[in-house]
Amino acid sequence: MSTLVKNIIRFILFILVQVFVLDKIHLHQMVTPYLYFLFILWLPFNMSRTWQLLLAFVYGFTLDSFRHNPGFHAAACVLIAYIRPYLINLLIPQEGADENYEEPSIKSMGGFLPYFIYVAVLTIIHHGWLFLLEAWQFGNVWYFFAKTLLSTVISLLLIIITELLFVRKQKFRTNTV
Amino acid sequence: MRNIFLFIRRYFNLLFFLLLQGFCIYLIVHYNKYHNAVFSASANQLTGKVNEQYNKIEDYFHLKKTNDSLVKANEKLYNKLKADFQLPDTLSKAMVDTIKVDSLTQYRKYNYLQATVIENSVNTQSNFIVLSRGKAQQLKEGMGLVDVNNAVVGITTMVTDDYAVVMSLLHKDSHISGKLFKGGETGTLNWDGKTPNIISLTGIPKSAKVVKGDTIITSGFSTTFPRGMLIGFVTEVIPEKSTNNYLIKFKTAADFFSLQYVYAIDNSQQEAVNQLLEKAKQQAK
């Protein structure tokens, strides 16, 4: 399957799962299960930064239009799309691994730990920025911290389950073939 | 000049990022106001279609609950039938009719319009409900909404041809006036954005007698709701230290977790009252 088709299917599936499955679950007022931003974490390595930003904006805006609050998720998505390349550069192990593989995964990042750090950092940034924007009007610092932390834990749990359920086969690409 | 272009090319991604963030924050600040609650009619039409499809399936899982509440509502209505009441015999007493108006014709003030909820959220700080009924089916902006048991749900903020968006009581900008059923003191409803189904009522003076379990109803001071619609039941009474008022927490009578059907209340006198208010405001200027 080509990368374009795969990502279009992911775009639609992640939005539908977020809006019609995860948003219907009321765990606790402090916890909102978010999984949709995994789409941005899984974008291909070789995509240009400008396109990543634009796609993240469109993606966040799509979720916002389902929730009738324009701007919130778009802002958080654009932020993680901007930070993503820097984080990949920091965490990628050997020279050129981002050219041998298509997209970030446990295999292409060289082990569970770098991938987990990559996911965890972006999740905290996404949730932190989102809840900060939401709480702008009535600030309660401890409420904000607790909500960010608890939601991050749930999101990470969901991401791990997703990774275990849907194994992404990734071919090792070389120039020599 | 060349340096400016070089600068833009070098930092294009950062500038593009800042531009997008700025645009998002502009959207958040600008569109969160009451009337601009929904940003575009086209997005509303599109997401409305998707939600409607989903709702067709979801409805089946709530059928029993919906049925139960409808039976209860029916029971209430049966008990209000005129046939159940016996009128006192007025023929035995002679009275002079002084009213010049034909007292036999009745004027309808409120009309109830049924609508299906196709989307509803409770877990954000500003929640909206989407109905699959719109302008083409007589829905207007600023109509009050009640659930099947006449408990207040919200007010319509935006209406397209086939869909309407409702600002539910669980929205931090939603300020409907409420009244204590027993004492009659009026206050304003506020939601703090934390627990769904728990809302606070402010502006009730400490002289009022409030206890846990008291009923809160609509005041009837606005044109959106008739007087006496059920809003909720008091769960907690907190005296505010700095003012002479109580902060009353109450549980909503409408269950926002399982809304399936609602009624929009069409007030036929709304336009006339609003025109009068406009006139009064202009004269005051």
Keywords:
heterodimer; A: 177 residues; 7 helices; 64% helix; B: 285 residues; alpha+beta; Thrombin, subunit H; 6-stranded antiparallel barrel; 5 helices; 12 strands
Task: Give a short overview.
Chain A has 177 residues and is mainly α. Helix content of chain A is 64%, strand content 0%.
Q: Secondary-structure blueprint of this entry?
A:
The complex is a heterodimer of chains A (177) and B (285).
Chain A: H1 3-20, H2 38-41, H3 49-67, H4 72-91, H5 97-100, H6 112-134, H7 141-165
Helix pairs in contact in A: 1-3, 3-4, 4-6, 6-7
Chain B: H1 2-10, H2 12-31, H3 41-58, H4 63-78, E1 110-120, E2 126-131, E3 144-147, E4 152-159, E5 164-171, E6 177-180, E7 186-190, E8 198-205, E9 215-218, E10 230-239, E11 245-252, E12 261-267, H5 270-284
Antiparallel strand pairs in B: 1-2, 1-12, 2-5, 3-4, 3-12, 4-5, 6-7, 6-9, 7-8, 8-11, 9-10, 10-11
Oligomer: heterodimer
The CATH superfamily label of the domain at 177-253 in chain B reads: Rod shape-determining protein MreC, domain 2
Q: Specify the helix fraction band of chain B.
A: 25-40%
Mean pLDDT of chain A: 84
| Overall geometry of chain B | globular
- The poorly predicted ranges of chain B are 34-39
What sort of overall outline of chain A do the alpha carbons produce when their principal axes are compared?
globular
Please give the count of helices of chain A: 7
Counting DSSP E segments of at least 2 residues, the number of strands of chain B comes to: 12
User: Proportion of β residues of chain B?
Assistant: 25-35%
CATH architectural name of the domain at 177-253 in chain B: Beta Barrel
Please identify the structural class of chain A as seen in this structure.
Answer: mainly alpha
Question: Reading side by side through the largest sheet of chain B, how are the strands ordered?
Answer: 1-2-5-4-3-12
Q: SSE order of chain B, as H and E?
A: HHHHEEEEEEEEEEEEH
Give start-end ranges of low-pLDDT stretches of chain A. none
